[in-house]
Amino acid sequence: METLATLFVNVDWYEIWQATLDTLLMLGGSLLFTVLLGLPLGVLLFLSGPRQLFDNRPLYALLSLVVNVLRSLPFIILLIVMIPFTVLLAGTSLGVAGAIPPLVVGATPFFARLVETALREVDRGIIEATQAMGATTRQIILDALLPEARPGIFAAITVTAITLVSYTAMAGVVGAGGLGDLAIRFGYQRFQTDVMVVTVILLLVLVQVLQSIGDRLVVHFSRK
Amino acid sequence: MIEFHQVHKTYRVAGKRAGREIPALQPTDLRIESGQIFGLIGHSGAGKSTLLRLINRLEEPSGGRILVDGEDVTALDANGLRQFRQRVGMIFQHFNLLASKTVADNVALPLKLAGVRSRAEIDARVAELLARVGLGDHAKKYPAQLSGGQKQRVGIARALATGPTILLCDEATSALDPQTTASVLQLLAQINRELRLTIVLITHEMDVIRRVCDRVAVMDAGEIVEQGAVADVFLHPQHPTTRRFVLEAEQVDEDERRDDFAQVPGRILRLTFHGESTYAPLLGKVARDTGVDYSILAGRIDRIRETPYGQLTLSLVGGDIDAALAQFRAADVHLEVLR
Ligand SMILES: Nc1ncnc2c1ncn2[C@@H]1O[C@H](COP(=O)(O)OP(=O)(O)O)[C@@H](O)[C@H]1O
Ligand SMILES: [Mg+2]
Questions:
Q1: Do B96 and A135 touch (CB under 8 A)?
Q2: Would the CB of B47 count as within 6 Å of ligand 1?
Q3: Whether the CB of B44 sits within 6 Å of ligand 1
Q4: pLDDT tens-digit profile of B261-304?
Q5: Which of B144, B92, B86, B151 minimizes the C-alpha distance to B115?
Q6: Predicted ipTM of the assembly
Q7: What CATH fold (topology level) applies to the domain A2-222?
């Protein structure tokens, strides 16, 4: 403990704990809303796509455009542009609550595209077989497409969660708190290298944990 | 009974080459009697899948009417079509099982989709179906853990789940090895017998037709070019396409055979036996009575479904050849004089 204390003189472990908690809250909250919004959006993108069940060129073109515009916007710009909207939605643009709306808006189009891709990977024969059983479109989606795409969707959630971790670090810039904020304020601006090292290690551990949980779910649901 | 009245199908290609039309099925009349195993044979692209998929309207016809047991299925609305599809099972070349569901859940899926709620009812039905296809011990496995033959058996159990009266098979054995093909065909024949199910079966192998079908239609370039009872079509093919399929099944090269026969002296004829006559000692008797000598140039004895048949190509030399031909004509065999 002696050595640990001398090594990390500037590290306030309570603050680190608070920041970790904030990061986890931001991540959990934004991931939840991203999945809730992105999954239906991804399904809609898939269904309206060329030669799919609801082949609808104008709708697909519109959704595609919105998704592409949001994805091409650098997250840091989105953060700032969204401030008025965030205040409207969360009551504040600061803290964990203020970070969640921009995080969700930033991650949802990305996640929706990944969901669309995962659904496209499902063999057309599966849709056909389900149609031949007399399934409704709703049944085809809920009972065949989504279960079959589950490994791909879990992979998409994993990638999205990891992307969100790096977004939360950026959200620190607009006063969101969390580990990234700590790294910037103390580690970078005050040259407290020990704080930087601790936060980076914690972020790394977080990413590793997310990736291995995700990988495990993908393998489990691949049923190979 | 399935009836086609002037049914045709033209695909319109969307996208880059928009407007291009592919006439996949020419206006077609067809009758498939209930309880039959009806085979559709043709080369790739002949329009077999199109015709089959029109029956359960996985493809919409461009024109014409399709009646199933007197009901016009081309007139069904979305809801009616879903109800109708529960009475028509379908199996596929690549099985199309859900990889994410166990064997039991795959078989249960059509029941769930049809609105069966009772877990006990579903379990009982699934157990019965899996027993029927010989997979009682594999209920908890996932498709990836099964062999091709087992996957197709799951496909069959799934197709039978809602108690259909028609089973559509699109190249159901084309992805299987010969031994597995034989056992799957045997299962289809058994289902046809025991459940009085009408089976429409697509293949590009005459051997599949010979083993299980009652009637066959031969397709070429979107048209049915020949149809009839399997024995008639198989033993006396008329259309060039049919001939090619039959020769393929016998693994005979027609040109090679013609060259071989050119070396042989005497008359050349082909005898076709079907049924009882296949095992009758006809050749020896004719040879003794008329003094002709014969040699067998080519031959095959096998079965069409359950009925034995034989087809022999002979050359005759010496003796009273006309008397021999007369005796063959009088007997219960089909005679063709080739030379
Ligand atoms: N969905 C489709 N769109 C366009 N053309 C198609 C489609 N399905 C089949 N075709 C064309 O229709 C013809 C008949 O195809 P198909 O019925 O699949 O033949 P088969 O099953 O005998 O191989 C082929 O030329 C094929 O390319
Ligand atoms: Mg085909």
A1: no
A2: yes
A3: yes
A4: 888 888 999 999 998 888 888 988 999 999 999 999 888 889 99
A5: B86
A6: 0.88
A7: MetI-like fold (1.10.3720)
